Amino acid sequence: MVTFRNWHSIAISFLFTLTSFVIPLSSTGQCFIVGDDSVCKGELGTYKLNTGLTGDTSFLWHINQGGTISGAYNLSQVKIFWQEAGNWIVSGEVFVNGVLLEMCSFNVNITELDVSFEYLDFGYLHTI
Q1: 20 inside domain
Q2: Domain contains 72
Q3: Would you say 78 and 7 are in contact if contact means Cβ atoms under 8 Å apart?
Q4: Number of domains composing the chain
Q5: Which of 47, 75, 111, 113 shows its CA 20 to 30 Å from the CA of 98?
Q6: What is the pTM of this model?
Q7: pLDDT, tens digit, 9 for 90 and up, residues 5-29
């Protein structure tokens, strides 16, 4: 059996050790996304995350619903195949040296593709 005579100092030292690993989240506020804000259902939209941060920068993209990320989702630019009409949000995270430093989002409106077909039949114009 091990007995600690000065257990208060051990606990305090342990707590200080844990808090020394906390990394504060800060943002420069320079993150923004540019891209297709109005797309038809069934089309690809392209989005680029811009930031003023330098260093070993990596990215992570998210969409709340309505589509699927096509290709790599960890680069500064992403393509999204939109499968559902509606108002959706594209968001991106910026990491420098493995630490999350910025997050930003972009609103996208996906509309139904309105297609009509006209043909002439015995002098009458028909629209489908």
Answers
A1: no
A2: yes
A3: no
A4: 1
A5: 47
A6: 0.67
A7: 433 333 434 344 444 333 444 445 5
